[in-house]
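Question (not urgent): is this output format expected?
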Amino acid sequence: MHTLLPEPVRRLAAWCVVLLLIAGVGGVAIWLIITFRTAVTPFLLAILGTALLGPLYRRLVAMKVHPSLAAGLTCAAVVAVVGGALYVIVAALVDNGTQILDSLRNAAQGITDHFGAAGTSLNDVARNAKDLLAKFGGTAASGVISGLSVVGQAIATAVLALLLIFFFLRDSHKAAGLARSVVPGKGGEMVEAMGRRAFEAVEGFMRGTTFIALIDAVCITVGLLILRVPGAVGLGALVFVGAYIPYLGAFLSGAVAVLVALADRGWVIALWALGVVLAVQVLEGHVLQPMIQSRTVQMHPAVVMLAITAGAGVAGILGMLLAVPVTAAAFGIIGELRARYGRADEPAPTDPETP
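Got this back:
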C-alpha cells in the first residue's frame, strides 16, 4: 500500500498523536486531582505512609501478630515518631526562640550601624510595623481565623490519611485480587504488574529518602551542637523533614541553620556551619544516594527539579512533597511497559545453521 507520506513522517505523526493523548490524559488527571484534592491528598499521603511502613508491618505479621493489631501498632508508631518530631521542633523554637530573635536583632543593628544612614533605623521599622498592625487589625484577625481553618483541615487530612494507612496495610494482600477483578483477563495481570512496579518504586524512594534524611539530620545536628548553635536539635529535625523534598528542601533547611549560626555566633561560626552543611550534602550526593538508592528508580536531577516545580504549581508545598514519589511511580510503570513490550518487539533469534 502506497501513501503520500514517507515512513519517518508517519512515525513522527504517530508519536505526536501518542504525546497529545498522554498530555490530554495528564491534563484531565491534574484537573481531577485539583477538583477532588480533599480526598486525593489523604489518599496519596496514605500511599506514601504505606510504602514507608510496609516492612515494619510485614515483620510484625511474620512474628505471628494479628494483621489488624499489626496495622494498629504500625500506625501508633507513626503517631509516636511524627509527634516526637513535632515536639522536638516546637520545644526547640520555644526554648531558643527569644535567643534567636535577639541574635537576629543584634545582627540587623550591626548591619545598620555598619552602613550608616543608607537605610532606615530599626526604631522606624518598629514604629511603622505598629502603625500597619493598628491599621490592618481586622485583616489580621481574619487571617488568624483562616489560619485556624487551615490547621483544622490539616488535622482532618492527617487523621484520614492515618486511617487509610491502617486499612491499606491490613488489606494489602487483597490488592492483586482487586486489580484482576477490575480488569479481567490478561489486562488484569498487566495492571497488577504495573501497580506492583509503581509501588516498589515509591517504597524504595521512601525508604531510601528516610534513611538518608536520618543520616543528614544526625550529622548536621552533631555539627551544630559542636559549634554551639542554638536550637541545634530543632534545626536537625527541620533538616530531616526538608530532606523529603530533594535538593530544594536540603537547601532551605541548610540556609536556615546557617542564618541562625550567623545571627547568634557571628561570621566565623556561620562559615563553619556552612561547611558542615556542604560536607553533608557532598556525602549525600556522592556516597549515600548511589549506595542506598541504587536499586530504586533513578531520576536525573533535572527531572526531579521539573517535577518539584510542577508539584508546587499544582498543590504548593504538599505538591512539592508528593511530586517526586509520584514521578518515581510513573517511571516504574514506564519501566514495566518497556520490559513487556520491549521483549515482545525484539526479533526472534535465528539459527545460524539454518540456510
